[in-house]
């Protein structure tokens, strides 16, 4: 029964997400749509990270840098008059892939804690670069004049439209990642995670597979950054801080490593708990931190694993 539930869980998850705008009409519609849009967008970034951690064993502590690349693609292009979403998505994806290939070519030649520290260093490098961009707000960030246009039309002005666009992008990214991990590419990636020497012995060099996975994850996180900038209509260096990278890792682990849809569930749980606690006290992080640690220690397999065992 548990295996059957887990097989149907992605369908149930996306079905519920598709119904959110309808269910939101029963309550504070604007607030619910805004919160769930963030869940979907950060779920996209967390799912991209799960491709690295859950299937490649690559714990990146600079993943938020790609979100920042996407967000600043919107901010910089908009400030120069280019507000078309498709152009911004293309630029964000291209720059994210280029940065992933350049940084990954160095970081992926290391292992374990060295890989973590190098990805953190590259992430912080972009963070400090963003703070130095005085023309685009520097430390204070950049407020956008409005949301991006699509084919010259303000189709994203409505919150519901942006939500469904974000959900559609998440679904396409999920199907792409599922296809990747089910292919020979994914099997090599998982095999290198388990035993790199054995994979080399049978004729597979893990490095190029890992580099491609790193580039794909970077591109998806960059796209998430474009959507996040449109959702908040604000761009700030904070979106690429190491704390945000840590949040994404927690989302992945909380939802369930190596499941893809678990990262989306982890994103929802993370943001909902954060939202609830922030209403009780301004020092909510003191409570939130231990809760996350306890969840990681005692919910083996994440929320997806817990749900499967509970049936």
TrEMBL record:
Q: Which domain of life is it from?
A: Bacteria
Q: Name one GO cellular component term.
A: plasma membrane
Report how it sits in the membrane: Multi-pass membrane protein
**Any stretches that span the bilayer, and where are they?**
7-24, 30-53, 85-106, 113-136, 162-181, 207-228, 248-272, 284-303
Q: What is this protein called?
A: Branched-chain amino acid ABC transporter permease
Q: Top-down, what is the taxonomic lineage of the species of origin?
A: Bacteria, Pseudomonadati, Pseudomonadota, Alphaproteobacteria, Hyphomicrobiales
Q: Which UniProt keywords apply?
A: Cell membrane, Membrane, Transmembrane, Transmembrane helix
InterPro entries membership: ABC_transp_permease (IPR001851), LivM-like (IPR043428)
Q: Is Ribosomal protein there in the keyword field?
A: no
Q: One Pfam family from the UniProt entry?
A: BPD_transp_2
Compartments annotated for it: namely: Cell membrane
Keyword set includes RNA-binding = no
In its UniProt record, a GO molecular function of this protein is: branched-chain amino acid transmembrane transporter activity
